[in-house]
Amino acid sequence: ALLRAANALLQQRRYHAALAVIKGFRNGAVYGAKIRAPHALVMTFLFKSGSLREKLKSIAQATYAHSRNLAYFVFTYKGLLAAQSRLQGKKIPFHSFLAACIGGWLVFGDNNPINSQIIMYLLSRILFGLSRLAVEKGYIPQPRQDPFPLLAALVWGTVLWLFEYHRGTLQPSLQASMTYLYEDSEVWHDLSDFLVYNKRTDSK
């Protein structure tokens, strides 16, 4: 009977906006955990030192922070979107922008490693999206050739220049990745740390 009542409630159109906010919170939490847990697992075991317990704690903390922030953001965004639509009687594009700006300020405004990674992830996709939109709207002409090879060259040229000469400007996890690839590959003592291990763990 309780299950039937709950299912009946979920079918009520008048509660749809409020229920969508709740489900958005749920989906934000689940998606955040799915995205962060594997990333934190790989990065922690590849680049962080410490005991197994410390590493597992770090993974759990990063996963929780990402999951919580995404859940809070979706909840805030969808709630503000529904409120604006209700107040004005209809949904307009500016509602989405304003709701997301407020949610971004409140939830992701703290400058920490998790939020920084999320913002950089979004920024790269925004730049791609705005470039495509500019072409679609006719603000810039359709390129005669695929510009991606030039973009790839500029991105890699810039990031390696920053790594070599202005390393502190790059995010710590990117610094760690590049150190592993471009600096650790310069050092070895014998076959063990040339092919098998990255660095020797003994005192030889």
Descriptive account of the structure:
This is PXMP4 protein. This protein folds into three domains: 1-109, no CATH class; 116-142; 146-194, no CATH class. Helix content is 75%, strand content 0%. It is built from eight helices and no strands. The chain starts with a helix and ends in an 8-residue tail after the last helix. The mean pLDDT is 90.
Roughly what fraction of the amino acids lie in strands? under 5%
How large, in whole angstroms, is the Cα Rg?
23 Å
Number of strands: 0
Low-confidence stretches: none
Give the % helix: over 70%
Total individual domains? 3
Shape: flat
InterPro entries: Pmp4
Protein name: PXMP4 protein
Pfam family, one: Tim17
What's the layout of helices and strands?
Layout: H1 2-10, H2 16-47, H3 52-88, H4 93-108, H5 113-136, H6 148-165, H7 172-183, H8 192-196
Helix pairs in contact: 2-3, 3-4
Features of this protein?
0% strand; mainly alpha; 204 residues; 8 helices; flat; 3 domains
Give a quick summary of the entry.
With 204 residues, this protein is mainly α.
